[in-house]
Design a protein that fits this description.
Helix 2 runs antiparallel to helix 3, helix 2 packs parallel to helix 4 and helix 3 packs across helix 4. The termini are far apart. This protein has 162 residues and is an all-alpha fold. The protein has 7 helices and no strands.
Length: 162
């Protein structure tokens, strides 16, 4: 049991950015590959940077993970045609950022459906106001009704206070 406590923690895919003593570099240093990297090598090199960028943008670990997985899946689906992709890393970031934009757009559309805009008017509200005005006008004398309907057009509000 004590041996298990002294063992280092298993490496996580998304480790901490910095420790108490120093800042950890984001990329691994490797020798230049002889040919194009395999999908696994590309994943190991890029996944941490992509995750951190997506986490910075979305603020959600789960969303960043899902967007990253979608981007790698789209690259994997096109991996047999990778010679048509100029920059696989750029392609991953572009696909992931497009995913962020699509989610934001979808959230705005759903938000508009849930929360009505200020410009949307209910015609029944106008009917209710008209009924209230009619009810109030019925409660006053005919002379007051005439003054209420045409009076505001002819009253000089500046001289009324004098």
């Amino acid at each position: 049991m004590p041996d298990q406590l002294n063992e280092p923690a298993p490496p996580r895919i998304h480790g901490p950015v910095q420790t108490e003593d120093n800042v950890i570099g984001l990329g691994r240093k490797r020798e230049a590959p002889a040919g194009p990297p395999s999908f696994e090598e590309l994943f190991l090199d890029v996944h941490d940077r992509l995750y951190r960028a997506l986490y910075f943008i979305t603020g959600s670990s789960a969303d960043a993970e899902e967007l990253m997985q979608d981007a790698f899946l789209k690259l994997w689906e096109r991996w047999d045609r990778r010679d048509t992709i100029d920059d696989a890393v750029g392609y991953l970031f572009r696909v992931a950022l497009n995913g962020v934009r699509m989610r934001a757009r979808r959230a705005r559309v759903i938000g508009r459906k849930i929360v009505p805009t200020a410009g949307a008017r209910d015609p029944f509200d106008d009917v209710n106001v008209q009924e209230d005005v009619r009810r109030m006008l019925r409660g006053i004398s005919p002379r007051q009704r005439t003054e209420a309907s045409i009076g505001p057009r002819f009253i000089d509000w500046g001289s009324a206070s004098s």
